[in-house]
# Entry
Amino acid sequence: MVDILTLALTHGLMAVALWRLLWRDDLDRDPDGEPARPRPWLRERQVSGDETA
Amino acid sequence: MLDLALLAFVAMAMAFGLRRPFVWVLVYIYIDCVAPQKIGWGLIQSVPLSLIAFIAAFGGWLVFDGKKGTRFTLRQAIIAGLLAYCAYTTTVADFPVEALAKWDWVWKALLFAIFLPLTLRTRLRIEAAALMMVLALATIVINGGIKTAFGGGGYGALALLVRENSGLYEGSILSTAAVSTIPLALWLARHGTIFKPDWRVWAFVSGLIFASLLIPVGTAARTGLVCAAFLAVLMLRSAKRRFLYGGVGALALVLAVPFLPQSYLDRMSTIETHSDDESASTRVAVWMWTLDYVKAHPFGGGFDAYRSNSFTYRMAKKTGIPPNETVTYEIVTDKARAYHSSYFEMLGEQGWPGLILWLWLQLLGVWQMERIRWRFKHRQEGTGSWQWGLATALQQAHLTYLVGAAFVGIAYQPYIFMLIGLQCGLWSYVKRTTVEPPKARFRLLDAAERAPAEA
# Structure
């Protein structure tokens, strides 16, 4: 009896959790997007490019 | 009937995966923790659930899932190194047949730990994986907790869902895992978005924590008590209202002691007097044996190398009631005693290289979580951010495991490796999504550099 009760409780919760995940867009993509990381090496390249131009 | 219900649950979850392949990763976590194929009796045992879920999880990720934001971290490389090294020691193991049997499940645990962080690209995925681990463990823990509360405990006597004494269903391992999971459950109650924090969530988590604390009582595993005490102290470090927390904790302890069964108190009192207890005294003997063993075999003896040990020693046995107590010494011979410690398990089985890799993996995790804590503490969101909370929870869980691991051979426990996978996922996520505060660098600009700035 206890076995059935706990199995039903946690499996029910897991089922609800999985169901909710199906409809969440942020599962596959973070909503705010990623902040641009500083890329000093790119800037340097740009600066050196300007110099040669 | 139970078989059908469990199979229906797995089938439903697998079907969900058709819409979101990441769900298959969660299904694997569930199957690996709960082992539904062992709960059922007939049909479900004949289906290779774990294999199907792993193929679906990996294939789904490889074929359907986006890879944006996927990073390979240093700790995953360390696990890969450990996996390769274990593969090597298995081929030259002292006990090839037994070593192969252990290798059979160890490689899966390590491989999944390497794979899991690759899929944890978003905040919601990290949360979903944590939630699945907690709920899967809750299945065993709540069940054991209720049975303990109604008086069905005892060392090796608590009837869990599965009759077998293996995996998470072994008393000491379950105690350690259950206590370690408490911080993670608390984090979900505070920062969850799948189940948003409300009175129902808090009611469930409170019940789960209570059940987790009952598990060491029900299984009479001394390790669990040590873990719980350690975690209680550790949580003081991050508690917002320390005095309140400390006071409530002490009060709870005082109230709980009269309700503990006498058999439990008797067993726990042997923590201090371990000389007259066979389980504890052989432990120390096995550890000494392991140290000797690696002197001759610095590269380890492969899985289950402990099988070659044998001890004969005198054990003190007290009879009578003090002060009329007589102490007699019995000669006891023991063969093939397991390590009863993850540190010595690693050392004996994988030698110094294995132990160093393993320790590196563990300690780097603790350090990385500390780095995240530090980084977020100094940001605007501070300690209220979910990243700070999760890093703290994962660190507390990990340290609690490392304490429990000193007394139980759980060096390759899949559940713990999932925890490590979660840490790698969080670390990579934080590195990717937050800008590291630049290190202050001061130097005088020279004339050429100053000129364009002024112009």
The mean pLDDT of chain B is 86.
